[in-house]
Amino acid sequence: MNDVKTNDQPGMGSLVQGIVNDIGELIKHEVRFARAEIQSDLGKTKTAAALLFAGVAAGFIGLLLLSLMAVHGLHYATLPPDADLPKAGIPLWGAYGIVGGVIFVAGAILTWLGVDRFSRFNPLPDKTVETVQENVSWIANQTANSK
Question: For residue range 77-95, what is the model confidence (pLDDT) as tens digits?
Answer without folding.
Answer: 777 777 777 666 778 788 8
